[in-house]
Amino acid sequence: MEQLELLLLQFLRPDNEARKQAEDQIKRLAKDPLIVSALLHHMRTAPSSNVRQLAAVLLRKKVVGHWMKLTPQLHQSVKANLLESITVEHSPPVQRACANVVSVIAKHTVPAGEWPELLPFLFQCSQSSQEDHREVALILFSSLTETIWETLKPHYSTLQAIFIQGLRDPLSQRVRVAALKAVGALVSCLDTEEGVVQFREVVPHILSVSRECLANGNEDVAVLAFEIFDELVESPVPVLGSSITEIVQFALEVCSNKEIEVNIRNQAVQIISWLSKYKPKTLVKYKTVLPILKVICPLLAEVNNREDEDELSMDRAAAEVLDTMAMSLPKRHVFPVVLEFAAESYGSSDPNCREAAVMALGVISEGCYEIMRKKLPDILKVVLQALQDPEQLVRGAASFAIGQFAEHLQPEIVEHYETVLPCIFHVLGDVSPEVQEKAYYALAAFCENLGTEILPYLEPLMIRLLEALENGRQALQETCMSAIGAAAAAAEKAFVPYAPRVLETMKHFMVLTKDEDLAARARATELVGIVAIAVGRDNIQFILHDYIEAAIAGFSLDYSELREYTHGFLSSIAEVLKEGFVQYLPRAVPLALESCNLDDGAAVDFEDSEEEGNTSGGFGGVSSDEDDYNNRGVRNFSVRTGVLDEKAAATQALGAFAVHTKAAFSPYLSQCLDVLKRHAGYFHEDVRLQAMIALKNVLLATQAAFPGADKALSMEAKQVLDTIMVLYLRALNEDEDKETVAQVCSSIIQILQEIQYRDMEPYIGPLVEAILLLLREEAVCQLTGDTDGEEDDEDFEHDEILMDSVTDLLPALAKCMGPVFEPILQKLFDPLMKFSKASRPPGDRTMVVASLAEVAQEIGPAITPYIDKIMPLAVKELSSTEPGNRRNAAFCVGELCKNGGEAALKYYNNILVALNPLFSDNESDDAVRDNAAGAVARMMITQPQAVPLTQVLPVFLSVLPLKEDLGESIAVYNCLCSLLFGQQHTEIVTFIQQIIYIFAKVAASEKESVEVKLLIGQTAKQLWSHYGSQIQAIFDSLPPDVGPALASIISSC
């Protein structure tokens, strides 16, 4: 061991060869237990602090492995010398390295009672008059908290007092900083209510030290405070309490102070973001939302580093936190404040303020969509005006906002297409390239949700888009491709005249191979698939082969985004070609599986300095930070999101291939199912979600490949169903992502539509329990972890998509099970009805009404015991200000009357009174009027004696034929036909002329079903047979646009 010090010096030299030689010899010496004494000696006595530090690092790594081989005397000597070294060492890095040695030995000795001197020594040091002693005590407590917490736990109050004393140390900033680090280590150990309450006393002292560090320019130390607050926010126990107000105030002070470095200010903004996401109830409870918004909104107008998207900037950070607040907090706390800010700022002469005003409205549109949809005309007026602002940054923000509105304020935004589209067209020719790009984004987003509304604009739109596509910059070309895809999807068959030129242009992009061109190639590949779906198989199938070959050739290029978009393209082509895609399966499926099996980049690299062959990492460097021990061996963790997107697209592709090629997919079922099982538990929700969809598609393909007898599932299909339901039930109960859980609900609904109850029966019990948990909002995906706040949950909106999917499961189960669903309804009824309270938003109430209406439709008279609880709710909703609520309520009362028997009869008069306004000209929604007609039809069919026909019939007939919701046609026209030949036909005979005219309009309708047309044709024929020449004049008087259609149907019956 004599040459050890020389070897340590040699290892520290910059010469790699010398380092390698020293490392090999030190590793050989380290196998001898005597290395412990030798390293301890050099840690204490070496003249060079670097050597002392390296000796301590190596001692920490080796001492545990040799500890049991050392004599008790040597144990005692090592412990005593370590404590002495810590108190006399003056180099902070060496001191920390020594502390880490103490920590690893303490982990093995203190719990066993073999180092009784340690804690008294540390308590003594913490009270020392020497700065170094106080500092090292806190350093050691910090380390020991993470290694022997259970031993320290009984001393929690004393420890906290020492930490507070350190934070308040009047003489030494080093001690205050060490105390701050020690407090950070303590946070993760808080697991009792008493400890949590006590810890809140520490927060003011943390803030005090942080403010002092910021004032002194020691900003790196202040970052420690934000790291502590990060831990506090994510803690599963309610640590924050009222201290949240102080934390918020500090974060706002920092993020609004332009003198502080932007990275520190960004940390402060992130704290606000995390609080909004994880502690929304606490923010509301302590009334911190308003002061947060008052600071965050103005940051949107701050100008710094806007040109460099990789650089931190406060306006982008503020936009992100505003988005989080809009998504996580009750909208009534967010929207009015942001709207007030926008109104004030838009009137400013400063273009940055005007930009901030419009940007704020765009940013919150996803989270505040329900309120903003109602105020859309006024908001839209401001944003469209901003599109004409003289400053390009304001026009760009307005284009962004329009795009956001188009994505999130559906369907109301589409109603304004005649105003919005011309404004967007105008900005497409903006002098600023940046504004142009945002305008094309807005156009793409807007067109995506248009249908036939796009047709009047299609010609000028395509002229502009094709010109930009063929002559524009690459970034603009890519955005143009998105806009063309949206236009094609909206126009469908009307896009056929434009398809050849678009497809010919895409040929050029789909053969590009330079790295800088591959993003454009990816977009072009995607666009061909969208166009193929839009124009349909007959218009494209004979030219697709070359595009498919070009797309598959792209897999040879090492570009994840191109592979991602190509999987999407192949999914689209499978949808278009159906069985015609089978020829490509032998190539497409392996490519998808290859992407699914890629190393996704969620990589943890391990270092093991104990291995003889590990030379690349040396001894892991000479860092002696506490994290070096806690994360021993872990050097890097990273996620390559491009590969995640590729995996998600490949997973989707497997499902698309299965569902569109059906039985022909059978050779790949087993391999595909194995991948999907793995991806159902994948760490990223995007991949899990696609796996949940694909699993259902694999079941459908299995049914096609292995059909069962007598509509039952085959053995092969049952095995797949069992695998899928196990994964689905696990997801419902355990998945943290709401969108994934919503998709599982939707997939189960589709499965229920395809299989019989006897095959689904084994899973009904656990499925109902999962639904019950979701209705109670107690599933894992619904838990925020915000136990600090005590706000009424009704103040916090649930995820609408999730709960709609959950409540859709009830009628799906009812349809599968029939009347035997009633005991399950009894179990789920009260948890469902809590969403119908008057204090709930309209969307919740109509969700309940719609779900129960469909349940009643499926289980028939079994709904009777629930009539008195459902009917008052449905009748009240008939007068809702929301058209969707009125529509669902009308459908619901009709189904309850149809199936509720005598129990519903007592409500008839109230129902007719409540329905009457829905037939008037004041009702602006045709679908509401159609459902009102459907309700009255069901009432007249079920209890005709309870309906005053002479009063009701004129009103009923005045809204026919149905205009929008043709799902009500069977009920309405069946009622009408029955009345004509029923016991009360004398009361309807006076309306024959009007009825025949209605029949003629139905016969001429392109939208009405054949079933309905046959029904009215047969009835008209009966009328002719019954009345003959008495009604000939009526038929002769029918207008030429409808009369021949009715005559044709009558003759075919």
Automatic annotation (TrEMBL):
Localization: Cytoplasm; Nucleus
A GO biological-process term: protein import into nucleus
GO cellular component: cytoplasm
Superkingdom field: Eukaryota
Chain spans, region Disordered: 607-627
Protein's UniProt keywords contain DNA repair: no
Domain Importin N-terminal: 22-88
Keyword field: Cytoplasm, Nucleus, Protein transport, Repeat, Transport
Pfam families: IBN_N (PF03810), TOR1L1_N (PF24714), TPR_IPO5 (PF25780)
UniProt xrefs under PANTHER family: IMPORTIN BETA
Protein name, entry field: Importin N-terminal domain-containing protein
Organism: Ceratopteris richardii (Triangle waterfern)
